[in-house]
Amino acid sequence: MDESIELKNLRPQLYSAAEYCEKSYLHNEQKQMVLDNLKDYAVRALVNAVDHLGTVAYKLTDLLEQQTLEVSTIELKASCLNQKLLTCQTYTDKEGIRQQQLLAFIPRHHKHYILPNSVSKKVHFSPQVQTDPRQTYLHAKARLQPSDTPASKTLSWHLSSETKSTLKGTSQTLASNEISKPPASASEVFQLLENGDNAREKSSAALFPASNALVPSLGITHRELEGSKPLTAFRSFDNPKRDIIRAPVRSKSVLSSFFVKQKQMKLKAGYVA
Amino acid sequence: MARAGGITNAVNVGIAVQADWENREFISHISLNVRRLFEFLLQFEATTKSKLASLNEKLDTLERRLELLEVQVGTASANPSLFST
């Protein structure tokens, strides 16, 4: 600031010095001496002006560099704050997604292979159980839809539909003929027990509705696995480390025989009708 | 006598011309340096203008970023339950 003020004051000083030199050269006899003094004064004034201008330029440049450095530092701090906020935002988003994922029910198996659960979590296929097949089917249907899967496409639906159709078609005519010979492998009533802890195990439990109505027509009196080896849940395919517990051979053969018999009953119902 | 006076006049004229040339040379030096000083001032003005413009732009950007950060921090501080575990 002082240098700039001195630089501003240097202009009127130069004007006043020029007027004095002109008057002295005109009125003074020793003109050479006046001329020499004027030359010296001009040189010194020029050097003084250059010095002042250099100082002002240097200080202004230094001030600008300092300001630029401060602005860069503040920009760095602002970017740091921005990164912190972005981290917090990402964290909240991830937490929200995680909570939503925990709440959502994602079915592990295709709904075609999901059987509905019964009330007691057991599937009885016993003639002694006097149950209404429609009620059991409705209960199974209610249990089967935790994720709003339509019951029309589940295994139980297929079983119940086939059972109903066969019951309507052949009431008692077929009971005494073909089905009176129970197969050796299907001479027992099987129970599908399940563990009540896991939802997957619930979904994999089998429920066979319309057992009461079917049994007298088919003449099936099966008893199997009461206190013996239970048919545990079919584990998911996602976890290969766990041992996949499959149904024993007997139950598979029973199911296959059951389906085969239903198909035979269908055919014969068509012939009868 | 007249001849000596003529010689003296010629010498004086010669000296005067030489002095005049020296003065002109001095004046040319002074004017050259003043022009160089003027060019330095022009260059300094252009450089300082560009530096000030860049600094102004940086300050504008920084101001907008700080305003955005202020709004974001205000939004975050309004819902502290989001960060509670």
Write structural notes for this entry.
- Chain A: This is Protein ABIL1.
- The complex is a heterodimer of chains A (273) and B (85).
- In chain A, 60% of the residues lie in helices and 1% in strands.
- Chain A has 7 helices and 2 strands.
- In chain A, helix 4 (155-169) packs across helix 7 (249-272).
- Chain A starts with a helix and ends with a helix.
- Chain A is rod-shaped.
- With 273 residues, chain A is mainly α.
- Chain B is mostly helical and 85 residues long.
- Chain B has one domain.
- Chain B is 91% helix and 0% strand.
- Chain B is built from 1 helix and no strands.
- Chain B has one helix at residues 2-78.
- Chain B is rod-shaped and about 120 Å long.
- Chain A binds chain B through residues 35, 39, 42-43, 46, 49-50, 53, 57, 60-61, 64, 67-68, 71-72, 74-75, 78, 81-82, 85, 88, 91-92, and chain B through 23, 26, 30, 33-34, 37, 40-41, 44, 47-48, 51-52, 54-55, 58-59, 61-62, 65-66, 69, 72-73, 76, 82-83.
Provide mean pLDDT of chain B, rounded: 88
- What is the number of helices of chain A? 7
Total strands of chain B: the figure is 0
Question: What is the CA-atom radius of gyration of chain A, in angstroms?
Answer: 51 Å
Low-confidence stretches of chain A: 118-131, 138-152, 178-243
Determine the fraction of residues in helical runs of chain B and give it as a percent range.
over 70%
* Average pLDDT taken over every residue of chain A: 64
State the distance separating the first and last CA atoms of chain A.
117 Å
Q: Tell me the strand percentage band of chain B.
A: under 5%
Number of helices of chain B: 1
Instruction: Outline the biggest β-sheet of chain A.
Output: 2 strands, antiparallel
State the end-to-end distance of chain B: 122 Å
Principal-axis shape of chain A: rod-shaped
InterPro entries (chain A): ABI
Family (chain A): Belongs to the ABI family.
Function (chain A): Involved in regulation of actin and microtubule organization. Part of a WAVE complex that activates the Arp2/3 complex.
Protein name (chain A): Protein ABIL1
